[in-house]
Amino acid sequence: MSVKKICCIGAGYVGGPTCSVIAYKCPELQVTVVDVNPQRIAQWNSDELPIFEPSLDEVVKSCRGRNLFFSTDVDQAILEAELIFISVNTPTKNYGLGKGRAADLKFVESCARRIAEIAKSSKIVVEKSTVPVKAAESITNILKANVKPGIKYQVLSNPEFLAEGTAIGDLLNPDRVLIGGEQTSEGQEAVSALGWVYQHWVPREKIITMNTWSSELSKLAANAFLAQRISSINAMSAICEVTGADVSEVAHAIGTDSRIGNKFLKASIGFGGSCFQKDVLNLVYLCECLNLPEVAAYWQKVVDINDYQRRRFSNQIIQRLFNTVTSKTIAILGFAFKKDTGDTRESSAIYICQHLLEEGAHINIYDPKVKKEQILKDLSSRPEIFDSPDRLNELVTICPDAYTAAADSHALVICTEWDEFANLDYKKIYSHMLKPAFVFDGRLILDHNSLLDLGFHVEVIGKRLTRDISRVVRTPAAGST
Ligand SMILES: NC(=O)c1ccc[n+]([C@@H]2O[C@H](COP(=O)([O-])OP(=O)(O)OC[C@H]3O[C@@H](n4cnc5c(N)ncnc54)[C@H](O)[C@@H]3O)[C@@H](O)[C@H]2O)c1
Ligand SMILES: O=c1ccn([C@@H]2O[C@H](COP(=O)(O)OP(=O)(O)O[C@H]3O[C@H](CO)[C@@H](O)[C@H](O)[C@H]3O)[C@@H](O)[C@H]2O)c(=O)[nH]1
C-alpha cells in the first residue's frame, strides 16, 4: 500500500511532535493530527503551542498549513488516511480491575472502534501509544469484528522513545525506530510501508523490525530498565549519605565501565514524568496476570524505591530545619518533572511540596515554564491535606522568579535541574533569606563549596556535606595528617 496521507489520533506530547517531524521530513506526505480536545487543537494552530519543547516551534511553523494540519475532525482524517497512528493517552487505571497498576486502554479501544466505524478503505493502524503486550491483538480483533467488505487492516506496533525536553532531537536522530508487525506477507508489507516513512531521514540500519509482541514488550522493558537505573543510583545515594561516600563519584566510577555506561546515573529526588511509573506498574500488572509474582515483585521495587527517595528527601528537609517546618517558608525552585519542559505529570516536586504542606509549611514556588494554575491543580490532588478550601492559597505562593521565591524563606529547595538555577546570584539570595539559611540541592546542580563559603547550610542528595566537614576536607587542619 502506498502512503500519501497520514492521520494521527491524539495531539499530545507524542502525537504533536512526532507528526510535526514526519511532516517536516516528508514534504510529499499530508499529515493531519486530530484530537477530541478542541482547546488543544486551537493551541496547535496558534502561536502558543500547547507544549513547550525546544525547537518544536520552528518545526511546526515550517510545515503547518503546508503538509501539516491540526484538526478536531477525527472522522474526516480517518477517512482520508492510508496510515493512522493511535497516539492517545494510556494512563494508569484508577478504577476497577487492575486499579493503580494496569494501563487504561479505553482511549485506544475507542480509537479502534471509531476507525472500524468510519473507514471506507484499507488502513494500516499503528499503535504509537505505550500499551501492554498483546494490545495490538485486541485492536486487530475489534477492527476485524467490525470489518466492512473490501477493507483490510494491518495493525503495527511502533512505540515512541522520545524523552520530553529533547523530543525534537530524539525524533530527528533516534537511537532506533522499532516496528513490530504480523509475520505474514501482508504484515511485512505494512511494516515496509511504515519503514519507508521513517527512511526519509532515519538510516535503514536503525529501523528495527520484529514481531508485534516483542515490539510492545520492548517499550515497557526499555522504560523499566531506565527507571531501574535511577532507582539503583538513588538507592546508592542513601548509602552515600550515611557513609560519607559521594554518589556522583560512585556514578562516575561505575559509569566508566563500558558494560554499565555513564548515562542515566544521576541521583535525584526520584524520577517523575508521565511514563516511568505508569509503565513499570503496567509491567508489574502484566507479570501478575501471567502468574509471575517474583518478577512482578522485582519491578515493583523500582517504584517503591522512587517513593522512598521522595519521602526521604522531604524528611531530610524537615529534620534539618530543626524537626519542624510548621509555619516556616520554603522556596521551591522548579516544579516540572525535568528541565526544558513545562510538563508536571508525576513530578517529584508535587510529592515533596505535599509532604511539606502536610507539615504546615508555607511554600513559595518558582518554575520558568509551569503555569500557576497547573501548580495549584497538581497540589490540590490531595485535598485531605488542606482543612479548608482557602488553605491551599494561604500556604502556597507562586513567584515570578527565584529571588522573589527565596526572599524571607528559611530554606531553598532545588527540585528541577533548570540551567538558570545554577547561575543565580546566591550572595544576593543569601542576604535576603532568614538565618540560618539552608539549601537542599535535590538535583546536584549547584556549586556546594561556594554556597558553604557564603554561609549557607547545604544538603545534597547522595553526599554528606556540612560546613564543618567541608572545611576539614578543603583545608587540611594542622595535625590532621
Ligand atoms: N509523553 C512522552 O514523553 C511519551 C513518550 C513516549 C511514549 N508515550 C506514550 O504515548 C502515549 C501518548 O502520550 P502523551 O504524553 O502524548 O499523552 P497526552 O495526554 O499528552 O495526549 C494524548 C491526547 O490524546 C487525546 N485523545 C484521547 N482519546 C482520544 C480519542 N478517542 N480521539 C482523539 N483524541 C483522543 C487526548 O485529548 C490528548 O490530547 C501514551 O501511551 C504514552 O505512554 C509518551
Ligand atoms: O539520571 C537520571 C535521568 C533521569 N532522571 C529523572 O527521570 C525522569 C524521566 O526522565 P527522562 O527519561 O529523561 O524523560 P521522559 O520524558 O520521562 O522520557 C522517558 O519516558 C518516555 C516515555 O515513555 C520514553 O519515551 C523515554 O525514552 C524515556 O527516557 C525525570 O524526572 C528525570 O529528572 C533522573 O532522576 N536521573
Can you give keywords for this protein?
about 475 residues; alpha/beta; Rossmann fold; 2 domains; six-stranded parallel beta sheet; about 45% helix; about 15% strand; elongated; disordered C terminus; binds nicotinamide-adenine-dinucleotide; binds uridine-5'-diphosphate-glucose; UDP-glucose 6-dehydrogenase; UDPglc_DH_euk; UDP-glucose 6-dehydrogenase activity
Describe this structure as you would to a colleague.
This protein has 481 residues and is of the alpha/beta class. The chain folds into 2 domains: 5-202, Rossmann fold (3-Layer(aba) Sandwich); 211-481, NAD(P)-binding Rossmann-like Domain (Rossmann fold, 3-Layer(aba) Sandwich). It has helices at 15-25, 38-44, 56-63, 74-80, 106-118, 135-145, 167-172, 185-198, 212-243, 247-255, 276-289, 293-320, 348-358, 372-379, 391-395, 402-406, 426-432, 448-454, 467-474, and strands spanning 5-9, 30-34, 68-71, 83-86, 123-127, 153-157, 177-181, 207-211, 329-333, 362-366, 396-398, 411-414, 438-441, 457-460. It has a 6-stranded parallel sheet, with helices on both faces. The chain has a 6-stranded parallel sheet with strand order 11-10-9-12-13-14, with helices on both faces. A two-stranded parallel sheet has the order 7-8. Helix 13 links the parallel strand 9 and strand 10 (362-366). The longest helix has 32 residues, at 212-243. The N and C termini lie far apart (77 Å). Bound molecules: nicotinamide-adenine-dinucleotide and uridine-5'-diphosphate-glucose. Uridine-5'-diphosphate-glucose binds next to helix 9.
